[in-house]
Amino acid sequence: MYAIPPSKAVKDLLQGLLGRDVEVGPADPVLVGDLPGTAVAVYVDDSMQLSAVAGMDLTLAANVAAAIGLVPPGGAQACIEDRELSPMLAENVTEVCNVLTTLFNRAGAPHLRLHQMYLPGQATPSDVAARLLALGSRLDLAVAVTGYGAGRFSLSTA
Questions:
Q1: What is the domain range of residue 67?
Q2: C-alpha distances in angstroms, 111 versus 49, 104, 125?
Q3: For 3-45, how does the pLDDT look when each residue is reduced to its tens digit (9 = 90+)?
C-alpha cells in the first residue's frame, strides 16, 4: 500500500506547478453521483497493479488545466458551463495528473505511473470507481487556485 501524502504536499506540488497560490482544506469524499463529472487518473505499479486513483471534479480540473496552460479564467469557466473539458484543457489536466506521481515515487518505494485518464463525461470502469469511492486510505481536499476558482480533489490508494 502507498502512503497518502499530507495535504501540504498536494498544496506545495500544485502551487509550484501552477505558479499561483493554492489553498487546500478538508472536503467530503467523492460520491457515486459525482463520478460522471470527475476527471479520474489511474496509477499503476510496474506489475500493472492498480495502486492509486485520483479524482478532480470538473471545476477543479478546468481551473488547474487553465492555470497551467496560462489560459484566461474565462476559458476554464466556458468548459465548466459546457460540462466538458476542451481538448487543450484535457491534455493539460492529464499532464497535471502525471506530475502527481511525484507524491508517491520516493527512493526505495515501488514506482507508480499514470496509466489511464478518464475525463468528465467518460465512463469510469467499476474497479477504478470502487477504488476512488473506497473509504480508508484516502485524502479529500477542497482546492482553490488563486485567480481561477475552487473544486474538489480526491486521492485513494490500494
A1: 7-157
A2: 11, 8, 23
A3: 889 999 999 999 999 999 999 999 999 999 999 999 999 999 9
Query: Taking 70 as the threshold, does the pLDDT of residue 1 lie above it?
Result: no
Nearest to 127 by CA among 72, 49, 61, 63: 49
In the chain, how many domains are there? 1
Residue 1 lies in a domain: no
2, part of any domain:
no
And the C-alpha cell for 49? 497493479
CATH number at residue 83: 3.40.1550.10
Q: What is the pTM of this model?
A: 0.94
The whole-angstrom distance between residue 99's C-alpha and the CA centroid of its chain comes to 10
Separation of alpha carbons 38 and 65, rounded Å:
14
Residue 50 has φ and ψ, to the nearest 5°, of: -60, 120
| Assigned domain for 12 exists | yes
* Chain-centre distance for alpha carbon 146: 17
